[in-house]
Protein backbone atom coordinates (compact mmCIF):
# COMPACT_ATOMS: atom_id res chain seq x y z
CA UNK A 1 0.00 0.00 0.00
CA UNK A 2 2.74 2.45 0.96
CA UNK A 3 4.69 1.74 -2.20
CA UNK A 4 1.57 2.25 -4.31
CA UNK A 5 0.76 5.54 -2.56
CA UNK A 6 4.35 6.70 -2.94
CA UNK A 7 4.22 5.93 -6.66
CA UNK A 8 0.91 7.78 -7.03
CA UNK A 9 2.44 10.87 -5.41
CA UNK A 10 5.58 10.49 -7.51
CA UNK A 11 3.67 10.18 -10.79
CA UNK A 12 1.24 12.99 -9.95
CA UNK A 13 3.99 15.48 -9.08
CA UNK A 14 6.70 14.02 -11.35
CA UNK A 15 9.42 16.68 -11.85
CA UNK A 16 6.92 19.50 -11.30
CA UNK A 17 8.49 20.85 -8.13
CA UNK A 18 11.60 22.45 -9.71
CA UNK A 19 9.44 24.34 -12.21
CA UNK A 20 6.52 25.58 -10.12
CA UNK A 21 5.86 28.73 -8.14
CA UNK A 22 5.42 26.90 -4.84
CA UNK A 23 1.85 25.74 -5.24
CA UNK A 24 2.76 22.22 -6.37
CA UNK A 25 5.37 21.93 -3.64
CA UNK A 26 2.85 22.97 -1.00
CA UNK A 27 0.21 20.67 -2.45
CA UNK A 28 2.59 17.72 -2.55
CA UNK A 29 3.85 18.16 1.01
CA UNK A 30 0.41 18.89 2.45
CA UNK A 31 -1.33 15.94 0.80
CA UNK A 32 1.53 13.58 1.65
CA UNK A 33 1.53 14.63 5.31
CA UNK A 34 -2.27 14.35 5.55
CA UNK A 35 -2.07 10.85 4.07
CA UNK A 36 0.63 9.91 6.58
CA UNK A 37 -1.35 11.38 9.48
CA UNK A 38 -4.47 9.42 8.58
CA UNK A 39 -2.80 6.12 7.64
CA UNK A 40 -0.53 5.96 10.70
CA UNK A 41 -3.25 6.83 13.19
CA UNK A 42 -5.68 4.32 11.65
CA UNK A 43 -3.06 1.57 11.91
CA UNK A 44 -2.69 2.18 15.65
CA UNK A 45 -6.45 2.60 16.16
CA UNK A 46 -7.03 -0.86 14.75
CA UNK A 47 -4.49 -2.59 17.01
CA UNK A 48 -4.43 -0.84 20.39
CA UNK A 49 -7.91 -1.90 21.60
CA UNK A 50 -6.84 -5.54 21.41
CA UNK A 51 -3.81 -4.84 23.62
CA UNK A 52 -5.76 -2.76 26.13
CA UNK A 53 -7.04 -5.77 28.13
CA UNK A 54 -3.49 -7.13 28.39
CA UNK A 55 -2.17 -3.72 29.46
CA UNK A 56 -4.79 -3.38 32.21
CA UNK A 57 -4.29 -6.96 33.44
CA UNK A 58 -0.52 -6.44 33.71
CA UNK A 59 -0.97 -3.03 35.32
CA UNK A 60 -3.35 -4.28 38.03
CA UNK A 61 -1.13 -7.31 38.67
CA UNK A 62 1.82 -4.95 39.22
CA UNK A 63 3.82 -6.62 36.47
CA UNK A 64 4.01 -3.76 34.01
CA UNK A 65 3.36 -0.04 34.01
CA UNK A 66 1.62 1.91 31.23
CA UNK A 67 4.89 3.76 30.63
CA UNK A 68 6.72 0.49 30.07
CA UNK A 69 3.99 -0.73 27.75
CA UNK A 70 3.98 2.43 25.64
CA UNK A 71 7.76 2.62 25.44
CA UNK A 72 7.95 -1.03 24.42
CA UNK A 73 5.07 -0.71 21.99
CA UNK A 74 6.59 2.41 20.45
CA UNK A 75 9.96 0.73 19.96
CA UNK A 76 8.31 -2.41 18.59
CA UNK A 77 6.16 -0.40 16.17
CA UNK A 78 9.08 1.49 14.66
CA UNK A 79 10.29 -1.19 12.22
CA UNK A 80 6.81 -1.67 10.70
CA UNK A 81 6.27 2.08 10.64
CA UNK A 82 9.35 2.40 8.46
CA UNK A 83 7.08 1.11 5.71
CA UNK A 84 5.44 4.53 5.84
CA UNK A 85 8.86 6.01 5.09
CA UNK A 86 8.68 4.29 1.70
CA UNK A 87 5.61 6.37 0.95
CA UNK A 88 7.67 9.51 1.51
CA UNK A 89 11.08 8.49 0.19
CA UNK A 90 9.88 7.02 -3.09
CA UNK A 91 8.37 10.23 -4.47
CA UNK A 92 11.11 12.49 -3.01
CA UNK A 93 13.40 11.99 -5.97
CA UNK A 94 10.58 11.59 -8.50
CA UNK A 95 9.08 15.01 -7.79
CA UNK A 96 12.42 16.80 -7.90
CA UNK A 97 12.88 18.03 -4.34
CA UNK A 98 16.32 19.29 -3.28
CA UNK A 99 18.92 16.61 -4.11
CA UNK A 100 21.19 17.45 -1.17
CA UNK A 101 21.75 14.95 1.64
CA UNK A 102 20.94 17.56 4.30
CA UNK A 103 17.57 18.43 2.75
CA UNK A 104 16.75 14.75 2.37
CA UNK A 105 17.71 14.12 6.00
CA UNK A 106 15.42 16.90 7.24
CA UNK A 107 12.63 15.57 5.03
CA UNK A 108 13.00 12.06 6.48
CA UNK A 109 13.19 13.40 10.04
CA UNK A 110 10.00 15.41 9.53
CA UNK A 111 8.29 12.35 8.09
CA UNK A 112 9.41 10.23 11.05
CA UNK A 113 8.20 12.80 13.61
CA UNK A 114 4.80 13.21 11.94
CA UNK A 115 4.47 9.42 11.85
CA UNK A 116 5.25 9.25 15.57
CA UNK A 117 2.74 12.01 16.34
CA UNK A 118 0.09 10.30 14.20
CA UNK A 119 0.59 7.08 16.14
CA UNK A 120 0.09 9.02 19.37
CA UNK A 121 -3.16 10.45 18.03
CA UNK A 122 -4.22 6.91 17.16
CA UNK A 123 -3.51 5.80 20.75
CA UNK A 124 -5.52 8.72 22.08
CA UNK A 125 -8.55 8.01 19.89
CA UNK A 126 -8.48 4.27 20.50
CA UNK A 127 -8.17 4.68 24.27
CA UNK A 128 -11.79 5.79 24.45
CA UNK A 129 -13.10 2.27 23.84
CA UNK A 130 -12.07 -1.37 23.62
CA UNK A 131 -13.86 -1.52 20.28
CA UNK A 132 -11.70 -0.50 17.28
CA UNK A 133 -14.78 0.76 15.43
CA UNK A 134 -15.43 3.32 18.16
CA UNK A 135 -11.80 4.43 18.03
CA UNK A 136 -12.00 4.84 14.27
CA UNK A 137 -15.21 6.84 14.58
CA UNK A 138 -13.61 9.16 17.15
CA UNK A 139 -10.40 9.60 15.16
CA UNK A 140 -11.78 12.28 12.78
CA UNK A 141 -12.59 14.45 15.80
CA UNK A 142 -8.84 14.74 16.40
CA UNK A 143 -7.51 14.70 12.84
CA UNK A 144 -9.93 17.08 11.13
CA UNK A 145 -9.15 20.12 13.34
CA UNK A 146 -5.44 19.47 12.86
CA UNK A 147 -5.88 19.58 9.11
CA UNK A 148 -8.18 22.61 9.22
CA UNK A 149 -5.86 24.57 11.52
CA UNK A 150 -2.68 23.68 9.62
CA UNK A 151 -2.48 27.07 7.95
CA UNK A 152 -2.66 25.62 4.45
CA UNK A 153 -6.35 26.30 3.92
CA UNK A 154 -6.64 29.81 5.38
CA UNK A 155 -4.69 32.88 6.39
CA UNK A 156 -3.29 32.25 9.87
CA UNK A 157 -4.09 35.73 11.14
CA UNK A 158 -7.77 35.36 10.27
CA UNK A 159 -8.42 32.75 12.97
CA UNK A 160 -10.55 34.10 15.82
CA UNK A 161 -8.52 34.58 19.01
CA UNK A 162 -10.67 32.05 20.88
CA UNK A 163 -9.61 29.31 18.43
CA UNK A 164 -5.90 30.10 18.04
CA UNK A 165 -4.95 27.53 20.65
CA UNK A 166 -5.96 24.79 18.20
CA UNK A 167 -3.12 25.91 15.92
CA UNK A 168 -0.71 25.37 18.78
CA UNK A 169 -1.67 21.70 19.23
CA UNK A 170 -1.98 20.87 15.54
CA UNK A 171 0.65 18.44 14.26
CA UNK A 172 0.04 19.70 10.75
CA UNK A 173 0.71 23.29 11.83
CA UNK A 174 4.24 22.37 12.88
CA UNK A 175 4.96 19.90 10.11
CA UNK A 176 3.74 22.08 7.31
Structural summary, described in words:
The protein has one domain. 76% of the residues lie in helices and 0% in strands. It has 7 helices and no strands. Helix 1 packs parallel to helix 3. The relative contact order is 0.16. GO terms for molecular function: ABC-type transporter activity. Its main location: membrane. This is Abc subfamily abcg.
Helix amount: over 70%
How many domains would you count in the coordinates?
Answer: 1
Q: What is the average per-residue confidence, as pLDDT, rounded to a whole number?
A: 87
Tell me the strand percentage band: under 5%
Low-confidence stretches: none
Query: Radius of gyration from the CA trace?
Result: 18 Å
Distance between the termini: 24 Å
Query: Given the structure, what is the number of helices?
Result: 7
The beta-strand count equals 0
| Cα shape | globular
Structural class: mainly alpha
What characterizes the major β-sheet? none
Order of helices and strands: HHHHHHH
Summarize the entry for a quick read.
The chain is mostly helical and 176 residues long.
Task: Describe the SSE topology.
Blueprint lengths: L1 H11 L10 H38 L5 H30 L5 H26 L5 H17 L15 H6 L1 H5 L1
Protein name: Abc subfamily abcg
Membrane topology: Multi-pass membrane protein
Pfam family, one: ABC2_membrane
Question: Descriptors for this entry?
Answer:
176 residues, mainly alpha, transmembrane helix, transport, ABCG_transporters, Abc subfamily abcg, ABC2_TM
Amino acid sequence: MNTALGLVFGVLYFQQIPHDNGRNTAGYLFSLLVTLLIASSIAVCMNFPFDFAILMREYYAGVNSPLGYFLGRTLASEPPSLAFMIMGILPYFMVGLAPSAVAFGWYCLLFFIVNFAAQSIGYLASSFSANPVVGLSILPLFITPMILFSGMLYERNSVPPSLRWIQDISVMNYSF
